[in-house]
Amino acid sequence: MTKRGWMLFGALSVLWGVPYLMIRVAVLEIDPVVVAFLRCLIAVAVLLPIAVRAGVVGPALRHWKPLLAFTAVEIVGPWFLLGHAERTINSSTAGLMIAVVPLIAAVIVTRIGADKLDRRRITGLLVGFGGVAGLVGLDIQVSDFGAVAAIAGVAFGYAVGPIIINRHLADVPPLGVIATSLTIATLVYAPFTPAAWPQHAVSTEAVWSVIGLGLVCTAAAFLIFFALVAEAGPARATVITYVNPAVALVLGVAILNEPLTPGMLVGFPLVILGSILATAGPRRQIEELAGEPEEHPAAELPTLAREAAVA
User: Fold this and answer.
1) Which of 299, 301, 303 is nearest to 279 (CA)?
2) Three-class DSSP category at 118
């Protein structure tokens, strides 16, 4: 990968590891539905005009049924549930639990017959979910199980989103999909926002966290992601999936003074190792993908959806 590619990769690793910290700061003072609405609204203000000028909104809207399904499982449900969960559990814990998305996706694609489980992938699933069990068993209190269920819902939605794209939106420009989905999500959140709007003074930290989520971690991050895929190709860009949780962990511990727990030390390495084993394709296929950085835009969509999940 080129120097520019590594710079884009490093920037995106931070931008998509930061949201867990910002969500935690914001939802302690602002209702999660308001945080999700404002995040979408700010991102739409940046991305939608670009998408309109590029002429990619129309193609996305012509596939409105899968687009609605993608929006529901990738943005509307997860962003609210994640905010709700982070009112209870630490941002670092949430980030590490979201790292199971590749494991869930591996199970789903095998169940629908799109892939097969071999010994390596079965081992990866066992190792990865063992890491989750260690994380939950060592760190989570009984009172936190509602938040854990919410995170499970987030992870499931993030795993389903790429499947919808692969099967129904593979020929749609990715900028059109993201800009249109964020617009739809904004409209869905809007009716619930006035009743949830904070009636008390909100700290500067919470306000800037919401602005950062929309402007930096969503709008700017997706633009950088498109540049990364163009520079390095979709195969190499997927590696960022395994970096974001580590960034979330470091930021939570360093900035929010969240504890570095035994569950994290045991569970995180196992989840990442399991995800790599369970999701890696055949060696030859990986090498072919890695050697073709200039692919048709549709080839980046599975990666785009997967990265949107981590965001």
Assistant:
1) 303
2) coil
Burial of 200 (0-12, 13-18, 19+ CB in 10 A): exposed
Q: How far apart are CA 106 and CA 275, in angstroms?
A: 9
The whole-angstrom separation of Cα 209 and Cα 144 is 24
* Helices 91-98 + 119-139 axis angle, to 10: 160
Q: Burial of 50 by CB count in 10 Å (0-12 exposed, 13-18 middle, 19+ buried)? A: middle
Per-residue pLDDT for 24 more than 90?
yes
264-278: per-residue pLDDT in tens?
A: 888 888 888 887 787
Mean residue pLDDT across the chain: 82
Most trustworthy range by pLDDT among 12-16, 142-146, 196-200, 285-289: 196-200
Rounded to whole angstroms, the Cα distance separating 105 from 99 reads: 11
Tell me the HSE value of 130 on the side-chain side, using a 13 A CA sphere.
11
Q: Evaluate whether 131 touches 59 at the Cβ level (below 8 Å).
A: no
Tokens of 30: 């602002």
**Closest-CA residue to 182 (of 98, 84, 101, 72):** 72
